[in-house]
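Reopening this ticket.

The earlier resolution said the output was attached, but the attachment link was broken on my side. Pasting everything inline this time so it's all in one place.
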Amino acid sequence: MHLICNREELLKGIQIVEAAVSSRVTLPVLANILLETEKESNRLKLVTTDLEIAVRCYVATDIKKEGGVTIPAKKFANIIKELPDKNDKIELKVDEKNQIDIRAGKSHFVLFGTAIEQFPTLPGFVEEKAITVETETMKEMIKKISFAASMDDTRYILTGIYIIIESEKIIFVATDGKRLSYITRPAKGSKTISKAIIPSKATNELVRILSIGDSNEIKISITGNQASFQTEDITLISRLLEGNFPNYEQVIPKKCQQTIKVKSKDLLQATRQVALLTQEKGGSVKFAFDKNLLNVSTKTQELGSADVEIEIDYSAPPLEIAFNHIFIIDILKNISEQEVIFEINGPIDACVVKAVGDENYLNVIMPMRV
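Inline output:
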C-alpha cells in the first residue's frame, strides 16, 4: 500500500474511530486501526472495533498503490498528532511484511502492523430498512434523554436507549426506574416498524462522532442484533441489548390536576443553589407552590438549610412536592426552551415535566417522600 494524504484529514479520521479501539489482551488486533484503500472513490478506510461497537470512516487520499494493514492505534494516533502543523502531507507505505513507513517533512517513523485478514469483518449497511434523520436532530434527541438511562449494570436493559422507528417518525425513550424521558421527531424513509435497545455507550459515542463530522443527515438501520448509524463518510455499528424494555406508555400519566409554568433559567438557578446543601446522591429539594410564588428549599441535619423564591403565575391552593435535585437539574440543563410546565397530580404521584413549545418531548419523575 502506498498513499499520500492530508495530515488534518487523517487526524480527524483517527479521532472519529479511536474510541472504539479495544483494550482486550486476548485479541491484540482489536487494539489496532484497520487502514484499507478504496481505489474507486480514492479514499482511505479506517475501522476500529471492540466487538460491542465498531466505527468506520473514510478519508480523502491520493492512492499510489492499493492495499491494507492494521496498525497499533495509540502509537499511530500519537505520531500523527505530534507531527508539525506545517507538514500538510503525510506519506504512508506498507511493505509485504506489513511494516508501515510514515513520512512527513523531515519526520520519519516505522511501525509494525498486521495483515487485514486478522481483523474482524464488519457487516454492511442495510439500506432497505433505513430511516433518515437530520444530524442536529439526532444529537438533540440523545442529549435530551440519555441522562435518564440507568447507570446500574444489574438492570442492564435500562442502561440503554429504547429506539422505535415508525413511518415518518422516530422515538427515543430512556428510564432508570425512577424517571423517564421520551422524545419523538420526524424522519424520512422506512415504512416498517423497528424496535431496539441501543447501549448508552454507542449513543454517547454517536454524539461525539457527529460533533466531529460535518454531515447534515444520518441514516439508521436496525437488523437482527445490531443497529447501524451512517452518514456520508462515517458508520457506527452497535450490538443491541437483549431483553424487553418496560412499557413506557403505562408510566406516562394521562391526566393531571395542576399545570404550573415556570421559567427554566430561574428554576435551574434556584435548584442548583439549594442543591449545595443537599446530600450529593439522593438529596431532595422541596417545591412549595403558593399564590404567585414558588419556594425551592432543602433542609439537612448535617449541613443546614437553604431556600430560594421564584415569582410564578399560580393561583391554586398551596401545594408541596419534593424531587431528587439531580432529576430536575438534568432536565433543565439539557433544554433550550425558556419555560417548562409541571403537570402534578399530588405530592406522591408521578409528575410530568414538559418544555413549553415542544409537545413531543416530556419527562416523568417520581416525587420523594419528605
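Reporter confirms the inline version is readable. The longest strand covers residues 53-65. The first helix runs from residue 7 to 17.
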